[in-house]
Amino acid sequence: MSRGLNKVMLIGHLGRDPEMRYTPSGRPVTTFSLATSRSWNTSDGQRRTATEWFNIVAWGNLAEICKKYLHKGQQVYIEGRLQTRKWQDKEGNRRTSVEVVAYDMVILGSGPRHESGETNETPFADAADDVDDEFPF
After folding, report:
1. CA distances from 87 to 22, 58, 81, 96 (A)
2. Tally of domains within the chain
3. Is the residue at 103 inside a domain?
4. What is the pTM assigned to this prediction?
5. Is residue 136 part of a domain?
């Protein structure tokens, strides 16, 4: 039997604040966009930059952590898998989207500072962790 691999690792900046909702069964799901950029020099010496946008989906405890600690513009590391979804829109057109289902998230850089001097960040979040309302770090 052969094995497959579906793994994505991204470092980028959030394009918007995370949005969280709940499934009918009560499971939290958070979505946000992530921009990654790369730069190179052309053969004539001009500097070029290209940005790629990814739709990120986090479930369960990781969804709650992302909603609480992430914000637009923040740099993060996301690890997950690619997933393709297909559906019909209101006009009956077939639609397809590719998204990254996250299972690890690490905040890079510092988050905004509150008046108390505390930062609005957690250094690491893993979808497999059992996370309560209070974090041990």
Report:
1. 20, 20, 20, 7
2. 1
3. yes
4. 0.76
5. no
